[in-house]
Design goal:
The protein has 452 residues and is of the alpha/beta class. It has two domains: 165 residues, Alpha-Beta Complex (Aspartate Aminotransferase, domain 1); 230 residues, Aspartate Aminotransferase, domain 2 (3-Layer(aba) Sandwich). The protein contains 16 helices and 14 strands. A seven-stranded mixed sheet has the order 1-11-10-7-6-2-3, sandwiched between helices. A three-stranded antiparallel sheet has the order 12-13-14. Helix 8 links the parallel strand 6 and strand 7. The longest helix has 32 residues. The relative contact order is 0.16. The structure holds pyridoxal-5'-phosphate. The site of pyridoxal-5'-phosphate has 14 residues, from helix 5 and helix 6.
Length: 452
Amino acid sequence: MRNKLSRRRFLEATCAGTVISGMSAKEAISKDHSSFITGSDDNLALLGGKPVRSSPFPSWPVIGDVEEQKMLEVLRSRRWNRIGGSFVESFEKNWAERTGAKHCLATSSGTSALVCSMNALEIGPGDEVIVPPYTFVATINVVLLQHALPVFVDTDRETFQIDATKIEAAITPRTRSILPVHLGGAAANLDLILSTAKKRRLSVIEDACQSHLGEWRGRKLGTLGDLGCFSLQASKNLNSGEGGAILSDNKTLIEICRSFHNQGRGAVNSGLSYVRNGDNRRMTEFQGAILLAQITRLEEQSKTREQNAEYLTRQLREIPGIIPAKLYEGCTRNAYHLYMLRYDAHHFSNLERSRFLKALQAEGIPCSGGYSPLNKEPFLKQTLDSRAYRHIYSPKVRAELEERNRCPENDRLCLEAVWLTQNTLLGSKQDMDQIAEAIRKIQRGASALARS
Ligand SMILES: Cc1ncc(COP(=O)(O)O)c(C=O)c1O
C-alpha cells in the first residue's frame, strides 16, 4: 500500500460510497487495487505479463468426514435402492422442511424432475409450453420429449431472465403451461408469471434447477408454482453427482410424479402392481446419503456466495462497460449458481468478447461466455421436421413457430454475457478484489490487446 489508508478501511469506505480525499470511489478503487494486487505490472498476462492471480479458486464440491460416513453407511446397509432404504426419504423430508414446501420427491436428475412434472400435468402432443431461450437445453428437451411445442419468450437482458412482460402475447388456446427458469440462482419475475398464469388458467412449472434456497418475496424458489424442479447434478449448489427433486404443495400432483417416477406403481414399494404408465426416474440411496451430508453445508455456502457476490458487484458496477445482472425487486435472495454480467466492448477499445474472456482466464479468473441461443439450435428444426412432429402439427403450425420463436434481445445477450461459476464465490473478499482488478487491468490494456 502506498497511501496511508489501510486496505480494510479503504474498502469499507469505498463500498459505503464514501469519496476519499477528493478522489471518486472509482478512481480510488482503481489506484488502490492496482497497487496492492499487481504492483506496477500492467502488462496483460495474455501479452506475457504477470497474471493478477496464480492460485486456484475454491474447488467443488467441498467434502469431509460426514460425506465419507454417510456413503459407508449406505454401502454397508446393502440397501442401495430407495425401496426399503431411508436416505432418499430423509433427504426429501429435509428439503421440504428447508424450503417450506408441503411435499418433496427426489429424482434421478433435474431433467427427470421436469419430465415427471410434465407428465403429472399431462402436457403432450398439441400443447404449447412457454419457455425462455436463455437456459440449459434440458428445459427445452423435456418439452420436446412430450411432443409438445416450446414457445420461446424473449429474455430481459438486464436480468438474464425470461421477459415476463412478453409472456401474455405468446399465449394461444394451445398453451398449457409456463416453464420459467430462475437463471443463475436469481428469480424470474414471479409476480407477473403467476398472475398471467392465473388469468389465463395455465400451470406453472418452476425450473429451479439452478436456484437452491433462492427466494421470491421471502418464499423459496421452486415453491411458488404448481411444481418446482431442482437439479442436484455435480456443478449445482447442492450436489449428488446426478440427482433432482420436485417440490409441490399439491398432494395429487406430487403423488402422480411419485408414481410416474417409479414405473407407475401406486406406492414406492407396491411390487408388481401399477396404476399408470411410468418410467424409472428414482434416486439411489448413495445420492440420498451424499445429499444429507452436502445439505449441512448449503446455508453457510449460500451466505458466503451472497456476501462475496454483493461485494464484487459494488466494485464491478464502477467499471465502465461491465454491467452485472440486475435482480427484480421481488428477488429477496439470489442463490448465485452463476455470477452473470454483460460486457460492452465499446468501453474496452472494441476488444471482442472472446478475447476479453481469454484475457480474463489468462489473468487467473475462470470464466465463460455462457449460453448460445437455444431457439436457433439446428436440432430444434430437425425435431419439428421429424416424423412424430409431422404427424401431430401441420406445416403451417411448424412454420409459424419459427417466426414466433425469434428472440432478438436474447441474441444480443448471448453475445455480451460473461459468467463466473458458483465456486468462484466461495472464497475470500481478496478473491473478489482480484476478479475486479483483473477486469480493470484488461480495460487499461485493452487497446494494446486489440492491436496485438
Ligand atoms: C436450468 C436447468 N434446467 C434443467 C437442468 C437439468 O438438470 P440435470 O442436469 O440434473 O438433469 C439443468 C442442469 O444443468 C439446468 O441448469
